[in-house]
Structures are given as C-alpha cells and as structure tokens.
Amino acid sequence: MAGLKWIGATLGWTLGGPIGAIIGLALGSLGDAMAGKGNLLGDGNPNTQQRRQPNYRTKPNYRTQQQRRAQTTSGDFEVSLLILASVIIKADGVQDQRELDFVRSKFVELYGKDRANKAFKLFKSISNQNVSTRDVCAQIQQMMDHASRLQLLHFLFGIAKADGMVTDDEEDQVQRISNYLGISSRDYSSIKAMFYNSSDNAYKILEIDKTATTDQIKKAYRKMAKKYHPDRVEHLGEEHRKGAEEKFKQVQKAYEFLQDERRF
Length: 264
Description:
Layout: H1 17-29, H2 37-41, H3 46-52, H4 62-69, H5 74-89, H6 97-111, H7 113-127, H8 133-143, H9 146-161, H10 168-180, H11 185-193, H12 201-205, H13 214-227, H14 238-262
Helix pairs in contact: 1-7, 5-7, 5-8, 5-9, 5-10, 6-7, 6-9, 9-10, 9-11, 13-14
Domain J: 201-263
Organism: Olleya namhaensis
Keywords: Membrane, Transmembrane, Transmembrane helix
C-alpha cells in the first residue's frame, strides 16, 4: 500500500470493487504503482478479484450492511470524495479553475498542505478516467454510513458552487449521485438549500413546510441538529468532524432565522 501511505488512516473497503480499480489505475498512471499492487486491489488476478468482492448492485442483508459500514475509515471517505469530486468537476464539460482551486483548498483545510498536494495529484489522475458513477455510488451506498454520505453530498454542492453558480448539468449530476447514494429527496433538498438564496431556504434546511407551527419548527430543529451534528462523523477522524461543522451551523442559522421571523 506504499502508494497510498499519505492517507492517514488505513484503507478498508475502497481497496476493492470499482473504487479500488479506479485508484489502482490512477496510481499506475502516476508511476506510483508498486510491486505489491496486488495488496491494493487483491491478488492481481481480475477473476479472483471479482470473486472476492461483493456485488455492489445487489443490496446485502441488513446485518451484513451494518457490519461493513462500521469499517469505513477516513481513507475510505477520502478516496470516495476524490472520485465523486472528479465527476462533478466534469459535469458541465469544463474543468473550471475555480472549482479545481476549491477542491485543493478544501483538502488543504481538511488534511494539511503536504497530504492535500498528494491527494490532488491523485485527483487529477482520476479525472482523466471514465468513471461509472452508478457503480462507484453503489459501493459507497452499501459500505458507508448515512451521516458520511450526507457529508459527501455537502462537499459536492460546494464544488459545483465554487465558480459562483451551479449549472443545470452540475445540479443534475449531484442529484443523480444523491439518488445513487440512497439519500432521500428531503435530505437532498435540505443540503441543496444551504447553497442557494431564497425566502424559503430556512424551511427547506429544516425539512419543513412554511405552514409549520412553532412547535413543529422546534421539533424539526432538534431532529436536524442531531442528524447533522459533527459527532455523527467522528469515526472518520477529527478533520472530517470539523468539516461537518459547516452543515451544523447552517441548521442553527436556519432556526435562528425562523425564530426572528416568527418571533418566538
């Protein structure tokens, strides 16, 4: 795993399946493939690799799914993020420098300059591949917990908005990814509202209608504060816990806005 030593946590489920294949090709294109490449993607035999990996288009039983999701690490999240970010960057057919700068700056913020530089090299190599979004998301949906998938979605909207606007193609791609990840339409709308300016954003963030009563608003706030609390992703490491604080603050701001508007 020498080519990925810069990832702070041990990689788990992303070493196999479609994500493992993408990372392996990216490392190879960087001249970073190692003699122990089989340790990264299996034993080097595609047929054996296929037998060992679960079918990511077939939903496993609940017990198995929960057991697998418990294995998600910071490294798993990071490589998943790199791949999906490359999909969004290419959604409108143009790799805008502002979007690339956003990805780089976000990785510097999360991981520090040295690790971010290495991650960005891998990201650029991944961007040159034709990624099967459905297959990648199927693997993530089965192996990653809900709170971490919401964090991925929040990051992807940030990339799309980095150049000042979200194009229709970018929004369609983010929504498609959200669907593939098994994220509900209400959760999708809540996170989307954090990146748009409209009079009903506060209601959308809290996943309620404008007709909601004061008690319903308070109840919704408690529910959303729990759902987006940074502690929900603490298993991914302190860097991702801090990254989740942005969503949590948006929930707080939405509630405070409605407190002022409704005067309660």
